[in-house]
Amino acid sequence: MDLARLTCPVRKATVSALPEERVRVQLLYDLIEKLEFPASSISVEKELSQIPHLRSLVGTLPTRRIDILCFAKDIHPTEEFYPLLVIECKAVKLTSKMVRQVVGYNHYLKAPYIALVNQEEIRFGWYDVSKGMYMFASHLPTYHQLLQYAQKKLPQNP
User: Fold this and answer.
1) Thinking of the domain 41-152, which architecture would CATH place it in?
2) b or e along 3-28 (b: 16 or more beta carbons within 10 Å of the residue's beta carbon)?
3) What is the mean pLDDT of the chain?
4) Where are the domains of the chain?
């Protein structure tokens, strides 16, 4: 067993076992095995310009790479597949600056949910229109729970 390499279940490749990559790969396994996210609905380390519904904005998008982006069907009126959850992975203590980073990504993506994750903490968020701010919980719901909330557009805590 090569401790310097990890197998990514989405990219179907081995990657260097850097601290942030360890967080990302472990989270991917958890998403797929525990939270029932279809591996085919997950993209890893994609630039904003590579996201299908943003292709018409190429040239105006910042060069940013999304750690993990989970898609779903039937949650958007015109797009067949649309971002459901944007996740930023970190190998260090989570900060408000990092929250702003994932919120900044979501400014373009418009996913109903965001998350910030490290080895010890999960900050799962959604925008509460009535409060005019993101609200956060310390867990990730299952894929099916997120789909139900996104399809119903429920404002409450998933």
Assistant:
1) Alpha-Beta Complex (3.90)
2) eeebebbbeeeebeeeeebbbbbebb
3) 90
4) 41-152
Compute φ and ψ for 87, nearest 5 degrees.
-125, 130
pLDDT one-digit tens code per residue, 110-147: 999 999 999 999 999 999 999 999 999 999 999 999 99
Check whether 29 has a pLDDT greater than 90: yes
Q: Is residue 141 classed as helix, strand or coil in its secondary structure?
A: coil
Q: 12 by DSSP, 3-state: which?
A: coil
- How much is the pTM? 0.90
CB 119 within 8 A of CB 21: no
Coil vs helix vs strand at 48: helix
Query: Tokens standing for 58?
Result: 């190429």
* Strand partners of residue 46: 66
136 forms beta bridges with 125
3-state DSSP helix/strand/coil % of the chain, to nearest 5: 30, 30, 35
